[in-house]
Write a structure and sequence with these properties.
two-stranded antiparallel ribbon, mainly alpha, single chain
Length: 268
């Protein structure tokens, strides 16, 4: 069974006609550059500078969100909340990975929002829509090579967790509801992990504390975590928007948000 059969209807048809929205590429480029710049600055930062990076991260995220629909805004905010809780559990409590100053830096929560939004804009971009299956083949091939080499310790530290995560990622990629988002997530999360670990922003434990399996720095299939984030974001955003629409937004002072977001106002 070929890729076309496996992925239908989650991927666009071959050579689909798709418009190029320049904003999608600007957001993606800014995110890739901004991530690297943030990690370079953090490598010499103290607590105050980390806090400033956090403020800059939130400003950047809200600027990006200003041009998005209500649904995307809600998804990003839910993703930020869920990922931030996950950071404190996985890093602070479980010590699966540790940040340079053994904290969760202030730039991490907005950073998760920017990474998630970047996966969204890449997935919906004209380039990804037009070349979805070619990009899919690239991701499966190179991601699989990375996972295989890491599993046997050929490319560095032995990485059993990465192989498991990559297998989970493939399941999301081929059968998930947001396949194009997962495709975009591979590129931005791989960039984040490679740059972040290279600069010492954080380091993954050699042995995963939950499973006691060997773990790479970074694990090869790390994009799988953003598939989980997306699943929670989709469900949580639908609930959030329903609640916003249900309550009297005018009395709560949210009328401006309603107008900007395009949510139907039922206030009479």
């Amino acid at each position: 069974m070929g890729l076309k059969t496996i992925t239908r209807p989650h991927f666009p048809i071959n050579d689909v006609e798709a418009e190029h929205n320049p904003r999608d590429y600007y957001v993606a480029l800014a995110a890739f550059v901004g991530v690297a710049l943030c990690f370079v600055i953090d490598s010499v930062a103290g607590p105050d500078l980390q806090l400033a990076l956090g403020v800059a991260g939130w400003v950047t995220l809200f600027v990006f969100l200003a041009g998005e629909s209500a649904h995307v805004r809600a998804q990003v905010l839910v993703a930020v909340a869920f990922a931030t809780l996950g950071e404190h559990f996985a890093s602070i409590y479980m010590a699966g990975y540790t940040y340079r100053m053994e904290n969760v830096p202030a730039f991490v929560p907005p950073g998760h929002g920017i990474v998630y939004l970047t996966a969204v804009v890449l997935g919906r971009s004209g380039f990804f829509q037009r070349h979805a299956r070619k990009i899919l083949q690239f991701v499966v091939f190179f991601g699989g090579i990375w996972a295989a080499l890491a599993l046997f310790g050929i490319s560095g530290r032995k990485d059993e967790i990465g192989a498991i995560l990559f297998t989970i990622y493939l399941g999301f990629l081929f059968k998930g509801r947001s396949s194009m988002v997962y495709l975009g997530a591979f590129f931005i999360t791989t960039w984040v992990e490679l740059v972040g670990t290279a600069l010492g922003t954080w380091n993954w434990a050699a042995i995963d504390p939950a499973s006691t399996l060997a773990q790479g720095n970074p694990p090869s299939g790390v994009a799988a975590w953003y598939c989980l984030v997306d699943a929670v974001a989709l469900a949580g955003s639908a609930f959030l928007l329903q609640k916003i629409e249900r309550y009297n937004l005018k009395r709560l002072g949210w009328l401006k948000f309603v107008r900007l977001s395009g949510i139907k106002n039922t206030t009479k």
